[in-house]
Amino acid sequence: MSNSPAIKINPLPSPSVTKTKSDVPKEVGQLSLDIFKKGNELVLLAPIAGIKPDDVTISITDEVLVIKGTRVQKFEVSEEEYYTKECFWGRFSRSIVLPLEADAKNITANFDNHVLEIHIPLKEVETTKIIKIKS
Predict the structure, then answer these.
(1) Over the stretch 4-30, which tens digit does the pLDDT of each residue have?
(2) Domains along the chain?
(3) Residue-wise over 8-42: b if at least 16 C-beta within 10 A, else e?
């Protein structure tokens, strides 16, 4: 393996407020992630309690991986009835700019014990190309 620079992951900022069709602000939570390199792959871990695998979508466009979903609250509770409100309910989203080494065609994902696990293989990227001069 060559002396390549460290792999960089660039999380895109998740908008804290998005507009709906009626122009009423709708809050979108940002999904918490752990991202690390293990061997020749990147691993993304996202604990997401209270959802099923069908409640989450993972997409990739160019070099941006997007995880979206909705966590539905079981009970209708007014703000006055809360003692503490730390959990986020509703839509969530997270976008990650993948490094050049990411093999986007071979990404796999599973959901076990309410933890979303995404594996992204890394491929060798040629960073320098030598061009021979013809005489």
Answers:
(1) 445 555 555 544 444 444 443 456 777
(2) 10-74+85-121 (2.60.40.790)
(3) ebeeeeeeeeeeeeeeeeeebbebebeeeeeeebb
